[in-house]
Amino acid sequence: MSYQALYRVWRPRNFVDVVGQSHITRTLQNAIVQEKFSHAYLFSGPRGTGKTSAAKIFAQTINCRQAPIAEPCNTCDACQGILDGSISDVMEIDAASNNGVEQIRDIRDKVKYAPSSVAYKVYIIDEVHMLSIGAFNALLKTLEEPPKHVVFILATTEPHKIPLTIISRCQRFDFKRITQRDIVGRMETITEEESISITKEALHTVALAAEGGMRDALSILDQAISYSDEQVESEDVLAVTGSVSQKKLMEMILALFENDAQQALQIVDEFIQSGKDPGRFVYDAIYFLRDILMYQSAPQLDILDRAMVDEGFQQLCNTLQVEWIQKVISILNNCQQEMKWTNSPKVFLEITVLKIIEEPLQHAEGNAVEPESVKQLLQKVEQLEQELKALKQNNVAYESQQTQQQAQKRRQPATKKQFKVPYERIRYVLEHASKSDLKNIQSQWANFMQLLKKQNAPAHATVQDSKPSAASEEALILAFKYEIHCSLALEHQQTIELLLSEVIGKKVTIIPIPEKNWLEIRQEYVQRQRQQQNADSNEEEETDPVVEEARKLVGDELLEIHEE
Question: Which of 222, 279, 345, 377 is the least buried, fewest Cβ under 10 Å from its Cβ?
């Protein structure tokens, strides 16, 4: 097979080819030219940002026959041997598959021998965070005091997993995500050299999908070239990455802003029918709205992650209001979290679209965007006000108006079903409650809530704001922050009671009560207990025979009783 992937063909051969990391390459070049480079380096950063490429270029530069120089010549036998892997003094080790103590001990035994072909032995350990604790310990002493002819370069995407004792013995360089501008510029050079026909918009779409990784960008470009016919278009890139076009995103956001449910749901359905991932759609929408916020706040800064600035984007930025965007991002973020726990992401996406449309948000002029149902109610209220005014003008008797209003109220259905607090049941539980029963449930409550979330998410959401407040052998009083959750808890009562009984090891019945009612009934119970204790104390005093005999001798007026 003669074809090679673009990221392999165009792997950097010089420091100047390492895109977007000039703060690192310049430091390394100066150290090499001045012959003040260290014995150990740690290269950390996201994938595809040039860590192992920079390490290999560093190994070539210090071993080049023309050293000390700022760039390898790539023509001498040392540079060529390191490039093709024929020189064994420069070793690239994958720590993911060589993470044991034995492999590190083998390195430790070999570093004491002088290099055979070049001036320095260089060990490049990729994904070094995958090493075991024993392997790190075996590497520690060698890394601290290696021979003068050895250089270690450790590369990782997760530096927080590396022991601090290792990090402290290395010079650390943090590779950053490559900007879209740098990625596009590098791809323009490559496509021009490779004679690849591609549009400017397609290059930007590739850079957006790469998320700061040059290797990812070249891999996506390779896929798009294979997918397209003669010229690579933006639609080709969107097809291979599963992303959403900026045009579709703007149509969707505008439909949501204008409360056009039909248009918004139709766009969602077309997106799903084309085989795209709903999670990717939400992800793209969040970042696109984020870019609108950033552009509204600082249009001069080049900090956009998802959007390309054109006339349509600027017009949308002028239309949308900051508060509306922030609320929509919050709703979409909640949808993104819920999608992780469901097998029906399309349903969650459609519900989220309707929720955004139904919730009264703010337009750029500051007027509330009201749902259709609210508008209808307001029209009915206005109509009733006009009828009432007409009745007053016609001198209709006040009593007749009151009678009609009362009859109308009786005919209107209740808009809110009030929760009936079971006071007698709660008082009965309080009479038989014990601290041990309550502590037993409280100790298992966190475990119970975690299991309930996995088993039944709606039930978990209902009980989330509740608190076990009192418990007897057979019942548990749950105080809820909101009254509506009491009614919802009764709908999931069987699920909650079965799981709670399994967790605590005995059957128990839940009794929901709003928090404000619980505070009242608890205060009432405490006062009644105190009164009962005072009454019992007085009764003991009255039945004491000594007190009775004293009362007979001196009378109640002269009698004083002192507690000892």
Answer: 377
Tell me if 57 is assigned to some domain.
yes
Q: How far is CA 547 from the centre of its chain?
A: 74
CB 267 within 8 A of CB 255: yes
Helix 345-358 / helix 322-339 crossing angle, nearest 10 deg: 160
Q: What parts of the chain have a pLDDT lower than 50?
A: 1, 362-369, 412-416
Do residues 380 and 310 share a domain? no
Which pLDDT score, from 0 to 100, does residue 549 have?
Answer: 61
Q: How far is CA 521 from CA 230, 252, 432, in A?
A: 78, 51, 15
If asked whether residues 268 and 354 sit together in one domain, one would say: yes
Domain hosting residue 263, numbered range:
246-366
Residues 56, 28 share a domain: yes
User: Mind listing the pLDDT tens digit for each residue in 158-175?
Assistant: 999 999 999 999 999 999
106 closest CA partner among 70, 142, 133 = 142
Whether the link from the prior residue into 413 is cis, omega within 30° of 0, is no
In this prediction, residue 171 carries a pLDDT of 93
* Encoded amino acid at 177, one letter: R
Residue 245 contacts residue 238 (beta carbons within 8 Å): yes
Q: Is the dihedral of CA 311, 312, 317, 318 positive or negative?
A: positive
Does residue 60 lie within any of the structural domains? yes
- Amino acid sitting at position 305: D
DSSP per-residue string spanning 237-295: HHHHHT---HHHHHHHHHHHHTT-HHHHHHHHHHHHHTT--HHHHHHHHHHHHHHHHHH
Cβ-contact 140, 165 below 8 angstroms:
yes
Tell me the C-alpha distance between 518 and 509, whole Å: 17
Task: Look at residue 543 and tell me if it is in a domain.
Answer: no
Q: Report the distance separating Cα 547 and Cα 185, nearest Å.
A: 104
User: One-letter amino acid identity for 9?
Assistant: V
Do 357 and 379 reside in the same domain of the chain?
Answer: no
**Count of structural domains within the chain:** 5
| b (16+ CB within 10 A) / e for 94-131 | ebeebbebebbeebbeebeeebeebebbbbbbbbbbbb
Q: pLDDT tens digits for 283-305?
A: 888 888 988 888 888 877 777 76
